[in-house]
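General statements about sequence and structure are easier to judge against a single worked case. For one protein, we set the task of working out the structure tokens from the amino acid sequence alone. The sequence in question and its structure tokens are set out directly beneath this paragraph.
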Amino acid sequence: MLSEDHIENEPVIAPRPLSRLTYKIMGINIVTIAVLAMSFSYIAQTRENLISNEIENFGTEARIYSVILNKAMRENNADIQKTGQILSELNIHADQQVSLYSQDGNRIVTNGQIPERKIYTEIHDKNLNAATRLLAITESWVSVNFKLPQFPGAEKAFSQDTPKFEQTVNGLNIAAWSAPDGGLILTAHTNLADNHHKIGSLQLVRRDMQIEDSFANTRLDVFRFALISLVMTISFSLYLAGLIGHPLRNLATAAAAFRLSRGRDIQIPDLSDRNDEIGELSQAMREMTEALRNRLKAIEQFAADVAHELKNPISSMKSAIETFPKVKNDTDRAGLLSIIQHDLQRMDRLISDISQASRLDAELSRDVLEPVDLRQILDSLISLKSDPHARREGERQGTIKRAGFESPVIVLGQSGRLAQVFDNLISNALSFSKENGTVLVKMEANADRTKITIEDDGPGIPENRLEKIFDRFYSERPISESFGMHSGLGLSIAKQIIESHGGLIHAENRRDDAGKVIGARFIVRLRSPVS
């Protein structure tokens, strides 16, 4: 039996502005993105710092060369050739090239050679085997790329028309370039003078392998960051697959098994302890399958009840028909024909009620609930039942009283269905009341629900039948009423309609102060629109 708090406690999945599952997915992806963002920020800042520091160091070194050669020219009476001889004897770094030019721009001497990275030559050397070239290509992925103007060669690098990334350090013009293989090349140019008179120029070119290696190591660190991010992403994806995908697949598998087995012995996994949307889905599916299972049982029981109820009048008719040829007395034959006619009427009534009951679920699912005035519905029914000429067979003469009808009472429902329920309840009350007895219809409305009570002054209901009277085909009729006048579906249909409205119905006995049963009372509770 439904509790009185059923209306307030009906389970509802509360909406969430942002779900827990969304927080989990967002958090996991943000962590991975943050790791990559940190690595890119790190490499960009490192590249700028490396270039700035190297230009400053290179400017200092070029200034030293300028001081040495200016001193040599003063000692050799500004002889550019002797100065070139001194330059050729200097111990130049392996990654540098120093050139001395005359006043008219002719190159006097060059000391050193611009190196080229080994991986660059290996990539383009078709004589090497594929494994060596593949290793070189892999190494080039983490090699430096400074994204500077392309180095045009030592001769053109100092042309005024050549675009360059140039800075001035200690009075020297220093330019930074990208090598053909993506590395860093620095160039510096300064004039040599005697008594402020230009007698030549000094040009320095450096392929800084150290900074390239440093930057390559930095990019390798970034590659490690990316690899870690990839591993994290894969791990988190597997975690998400276990967190979301696997439970959903288990639910889908269980649902398919439930469908194939027609609801027999298949349980939907209980994931309600997850406290997220999948847990809510699991709980909803469990409730749905339980409702389907109960519906299947109800259909089976209904079919068995229908067969039983139809078998009784059929058996009675069969017996009367078999007896009819043996009876010669006209009076007895008329009695047998009366029995057959009564059983046919009973079957017709049963089939009509069964047809209505079998369609009820589908019809209720299509009904649209809307605010209706319950006072108006009950007023119309009471007026109709108060007319002796409009009463049905079995309804006794009596008085129907009202209580709580002072103002409109709005409930959420379907007016036709509610009229069907209360027509049945008032009709039952009139059937069981004493002759010229009283039936009371009372309404009590509050903010969230309305209580309707229908009382009679009949013999009451056996205590062990207070719930059973709502079962299909159960009939507890007055002794004075002819057998077979009712199918026993009325209260069952009434309960089904009230519960489809989100309400409840139950029966109890009225008692006097001494505890004696003085009648029956049916109580219906319905939702108000605001609830």
In short: Residues 6-13, 478-484 have pLDDT under 50 and may be disordered. The chain has two domains: 21-221, 290-527.
